[in-house]
Each structure stands twice: as structure tokens, then as C-alpha cells.
């Protein structure tokens, strides 16, 4: 199968140029002006459009269960496709008593194979650090899963991890090129403040932010960085939200430590005031870490530009509002009973374009970096994240002139609300290709269930070398 994308303005992390792209089967075979149409099966006219690599969302939750309630799964993974994301990396919790790979395999067989509509990888969340589980860590790299995550937050939940687990994971992981990732919030402080607020009758959704202030995140970020320094291993801080945590990352980076961090679209766009809405609407925005005051947003954009943060992820959690978010509603309930997380996977790329590129906060080159190239590098996805010969033909043809409104009416996320409801959208993916196959055409999802394949990552990605040299 040969496809030719003609006359698009190709965006890379370095530059932009008008050119054609020839795709042969799953790969980009040639890039150049006036490529021959001979033997080509399909021509896509990209005149007036931008062409960039399919987004890589390195932080999604299609299997997360919070207080017994599960998010929407891979059956809704046409949503990232429609939003210009062609690869997602899912956090799979290790099942208590089971192995790391066993837990991934079980989820993959039952809930991913034959269902996924975009390519995918997995970050295992180590929840049960028995000695034989620690010994298993290097096997993750062989299987193509070069990351391992620990939750420093959520004290009292089975997935909460203490420092001993982090030290062991860092030390063992380093042997095999596994990058350890942490959700950095001090679980004990959050637990203390949550109990205190509830005892004072402060149970409304706004108090979610009060229960986990920036200091919780800064302290845990700093601790994780020092644990990594001790182990001489890289560390990856997921969903960074605040100036105080950025200060820790920047300082470590400037000391020459291998530290990476991502932020998420909602921390760039919303502030904590949205938690304080009538009719329990604030629950829609309960995620952890919590949304911050507005003054944290500019430093996050700056950090993306300077490379102190590598990516904008979604931290997508498909909990619905009517039933699941309402677990925290009513007599005897509080913000602490609301499932954490918000749906965001479909709007991530469009939000970064509209509120980043169009507002002059990111260049188009930085945009490509934070939505695709850098996540590919950090996760060792060496065949994805770039428009270049030999790479997977995961490609977005983007119409910059489209004007619309984001919201649940256009969402494939399978839930009853959108945190982006009513917000302006500038531009949209018009055509999306997944390894050469058209999965979005005229801004409609046209792919098939099960088209997504496992994208195996290489140990440490290439980011490890980059940071070691810095
Ligand atoms: O609130 C969030 N982010 N929920 C999902 C789990 C996590 O902490 O990443
Ligand atoms: Zn603890
Ligand atoms: Zn988290
Ligand atoms: Zn998350």
C-alpha cells in the first residue's frame, strides 16, 4: 500500500518546510518536493495544512480503579485518534500477589488486544514490592516496557509506595535501563490535611486543593530526586503542576542529574477556582495533584520551552460525572470520596495548539516536541514521534483554519462531561494515519477496533544519554 501526502507544511522539532511524504505500508519511505504519484494507491491533499507526527500521550489511565470504580477503557481509544494522538502509554497497576509482567499480560489480553484503536505501551505501577517482584524488574526492559511507576501519594490505597520501594526500584531498574516514574505528592501530609478539613466540616470540592497544597508536591519531588541521586539513576516526575516542584527539577537538572518531568494540559489551562462551583460541578476538576492558582501557569509554559519539562500529557481518566464523580456527593461524603482524574485524552493536542501555539506560548517546533517527539524519546519509542524516513507513518494532517468549540457533544471519551466544555478550539486534525492506515478522515474517526498495536520501548530511551551528557 502506497500513500502520498502532498504539499503539506511539515513540522519537525527543528524546522518546517513544504514537502510531500510517501508512505509505503507502515513506514515513511520518502520526503521531498514533487514526489512521483506512480503506483500510489491514495493521495491526501495537504495544501494549506500542517503535517506533524501523531501525538504520543505518555500518561493515560484506561484501567484505573478508584475506590472500586473503574474508568472507561480502551473501547474509547478512538478518542485520542480523533484528537491527533496515535500512541498512548497506559499505567497498569500490578495486581497484588501477582508479578509485574503477569499483571500487564492479563490486562493486555483481556482489555486491550482486539480493542485498542491507537498504538499503546504500558508503564507498570509496582504495588507489591516483594523481593521476587524487585528481581523481576529487569525483565520489563526485555519485554519492551522500560518504565516503572510508584505512587508517593494516595496513602492508605494499595498502590501507595513508601521510600523503600522507590529506592529498590531505582537501584534495580538502573541495571536494566528502566526509568522510574513517581507521582510525587507527600501522602502523609495529604492524609493529615484531609482528615483535618473533614473534621472541620470543610468537605466541598474546593477543599480538594486545600488538602494537597504545592508544598506536598514540592517535598515529594525533592525527595524523589534525592533518592534518584543516591541511586545514580534517572527519575521521571509525572504531572508536575507548580513552581515549587519546578524549582526542584530545575535545580537537579542544573546539577547534571537525569531528571525528567511532564505537565498536563489542564494544569496549563485551568486554575483552582473551577473547583469552587455550585451543583457539585467542581468535582469534574478533582484530579491529583490539584489544580493550582493562576500564577503557576506561566512557569509551566516556560519550563516546557526551556526543556525542564519534557511533555504535555493528558493524565486521562474517564470517570463519569453522574455516577462516579458523585461518589463524593451527599450526607457524610466529601471531596475525598470523589474519584481522582479527568477526561482529557481527546483534547490534549488541540488544547496545546489553541492555548499554546496560537497564544504564542510555544513555537510550532516546541509543540511537536512536547506532544510527540519528547515522549517518544523518553519512552524509548525509537520508531515514533518524528516525520522522517524510516519512522512509523503516524501522521496528523492538521487544518489550522478550523474554528470550533470543545465539549462533550464532540467527544468519543465515553463519559458525560468534558473539562473543556465551551472552550474555543482553533484548528483540528483533519486526517490521521496510524502506521500508514487512515483512521481519521474529514475529522471523523474511520478506523477499526483492534488496529492499535503494542509499541515496545527501548531501555532508558535516548533521553538518558542526553541528560548524562548535559
Ligand atoms: O487524579 C489523577 N491524576 N488520577 C489518576 C491517577 C494519577 O494520580 O495519575
Ligand atoms: Zn507512606
Ligand atoms: Zn498521579
Ligand atoms: Zn495519572
From TrEMBL:
Signal peptide: none annotated. The keyword rRNA-binding does not apply. Carbamylation allows a single lysine to coordinate two divalent metal cations. It holds the Pfam family Amidohydro_1. SUPFAM superfamilies: Composite domain of metallo-dependent hydrolases (SSF51338), Metallo-dependent hydrolases (SSF51556). The modification N6-carboxylysine is found at residue 149. Keywords: Hydrolase, Metal-binding. One of its GO terms (cellular component) is cytosol. Residues 50-438 form the Amidohydrolase-related domain. Belongs to the metallo-dependent hydrolases superfamily. Hydantoinase/dihydropyrimidinase family. This is Dihydropyrimidinase. It comes from Anaerotignum lactatifermentans.
